[in-house]
Amino acid sequence: MEHITLGSSQPLLIREAQVRELLPMARAIEVLEAAFRDWAYGRATNQPRQRVYTPQGTLHLMGAAWHSKGYIGYKAYLSFPTGTRFHVVLASAHTGELLALIEADWLGRIRTGAASGVATKYLARENACTVAILGAGGQAATQLEAVCAVRPIEQVFVYSRTPEKRETFARQMQNQLGIPVRATDCIEAAVAEADIICTITTAREPILTGAMLRSGMHINAAGANSMARRELDTFAVGRCERIAVDDPQQARLEAAELVVPIELRKLSWERVQPLAHIVGGLLPPRQSAEEITLFKSLGIALEDVAAAAAVYEALTAHTP
Q1: pTM value > 0.85
Q2: Most exposed residue of 10, 119, 135, 231, measured as fewest CB within 10 angstroms of its CB?
Q3: Which residue range forms the structural domain that includes residue 229?
Q4: Domain with 186 in it: what CATH number?
Q5: Helices (H), ranges, 23-77
């Protein structure tokens, strides 16, 4: 195990391979669910993402505290043409002592998937068994893995603009999950039989329209987190009877799928519910088999701090 030295403390330096080993999906879902529940009762705090722009690239900063567990921290990442680099700093919420510096590419992927897993647990039908994944990039696998962890999935359809990517993704995930995963060449075919839809693309214009939705669907919209990008059109959002977000404050800054319909007076912020309040029992989960439900995922710092805490605890539990 590696350490970095700052003053008298000995914080851990936790590498990507260790995160992969120490944070399985089931644990990630469990710890995020606990963090959301605590947030509902004032035992956690989240600060929306801030961005610092330069002509060459962007610094993204986001912080949170999980008071009841004694953790505070932040994620910072730098996105430049040469690539994106992620790290999380985890500290004691009691003393401010630096506990760990964690490489956070995989941590970000698994916590984004786990957030959709938590939302699916509360908002999808209990008998939902078919999934459509729109997008086959680096974040898609954990979206599917998380949904499969909370619902009895029997069939998956995947769409990507790139035939090779969707075919490769289908083969890999079928081998990993042991269920049929079929690549499709159009979005309509992918979602036609889906009970759950996960959008995890880099699309700037909507790819999922209201005309494609059916009664009883649940949607995890996880690809867009800026005002320049939308995966769902206004009609699709308008058809959703129940809409949840990971952070309503951050949604006002980043969720174009919600801001555009609100500006068009097709939606109001009063209809947008905090996922934490649903998890914490302050608001009800899905109320009928016919509802169309939506989780707009932005990716928040509390998810990073919770996931980082789980990695840190797993590592220190095995350290003499």
Answers
A1: yes
A2: 10
A3: 114-300
A4: 3.40.50.720
A5: 25-40
